[in-house]
Predict the structure.
Amino acid sequence: MARLIKIFDTTLRDGEQSPGCSMNLQEKIQMAKQLEALKSDVIEAGFAISSPGDFESVSEIAKIIKDCTVASLARTIPKDIDAAWEAVKYAKRPRIHTFIATSDLHMKYKLKMSPEEVLERAVSMVKYAKKYCEDIEFSAEDATRSDPKFLVKLFEAVIDAGATVINIPDTVGYIIPDEYYKFIKEIKENVRNIHKVDISVHCHNDLGLAVANSLAAAKAGASQLECTINGIGERAGNAALEEIVMSLYTRKDYLDFECNIDTNKIIRTSNLLTSITGVPVQPNKAIVGANAFAHESGIHQHGVLNNRSTYEIMTPQSIGLNENKMVLGKHSGRHAFEKRLKSLGFHLTPEEFNQSFAKFKQLADKKKVIYDEDIEAIVSKHCFNTPEFYKLKNYVINIGNTISTTASICVTFNEKDIEEVALGDGPVQASFKAIEKIVGKDLNLEDYRIRAITKGKDAQGEAVVKLSYQGKTYTGKGLSTDVIESSITAYINAVNKIMLALSYDNKENTMNIP
């Protein structure tokens, strides 16, 4: 009988730590709901102690999610564990995930603790966490560069203290698959009480081996694999959930495992994350890249036309990729729109549905054909968007090849209209300068991109703006059939996220208040 592998999704914690992938509360909630629909076994919702915003998001996700374990990360420090419990205590299945570094390098230079002190701290904090809930995961940070004999001693002690999951992470993406297999085997064979817990692994992709290492660990006896959607995460990222799951699905002949993930929801989940973060996957990305099921070579095309299995080891449909994307138009009614939303994985409140339907009708007056991507973009923008501290009222652009470009931007803030004019090298730069004048702060533009959501001359343009402020990066998105308008709204959206972050941190608003 195939052995069950649990999928621990850390998109909302480790994944969000990836530069440019931060999410606000509503975006995290929507993503968590989609991970629940995907049937992830565990959702690591965040690092509750790290900020008031992170605490709130973990807490709200814990209240909403019913079918998954909800975990919060915590250092082996009482205040971290207290915060983690306060955040996850509403969950139907709560988990506290506590960690401490165990490699000689980390213990000496980062912790400045002896191995004996680390062991004592780990045991005492697992016991401390155990008073709050039954499910306790313990992670040995930088395990793959740790002394296996020390890990055996440590793991035995924390299991006796009440740990229910032991995580053996490859924190810096250092190990090789064969080596990892032997490493996990050695731990499993020498920890006397290992049979009482799940063995988990958390692999980073610094050498491009995160998925291969995760699968090698499963072969060696790991029963939980930690991963993220699209492989996002610190540095080079984490093991990609979609690659792990489709490897299990496609190579059942070699990997005698099964998992609970609904593969038909993979592409939807990937697209939602991309829409929220504004960070696209590369075209040749395995499973979810735009070219994953594309065939340009004549030889390949001929083979696929005769028999798809000649060059496709899985079908587009197996990950939920629907080839018929033309679905709705301006004559479509509320029922058809609602049905399509549900098929795309959206479950909206009546208010959210009404907002989305109104925007859909507005767009349908401008476009002949509405595609799935249009609908996803509408919902992403209007149902879990940032509160509008600044709201665009109107704009006027004067441009020509013989005059300087001028942008006049008027926004509403605290029920007052503010208008500024700026010159720039083109309409986008002039508009951004005008908004910066309105805000009254130096905002550093880190990145600006615009793309067509779908094909055709009437396609919506989605703009993505990344601003840095006080050492943090904020991503704003705008959507319109007018690319200038989408660029302006994307910049304002990023500014609003800065305002929201300031309110989370209980800081005095240092932006311009008229």
Remarks:
- The first strand starts at residue 3 and ends at 4.
- The CA atoms of residues 108 and 114 lie 7 Å apart.
- The first helix runs from residue 25 to 38.
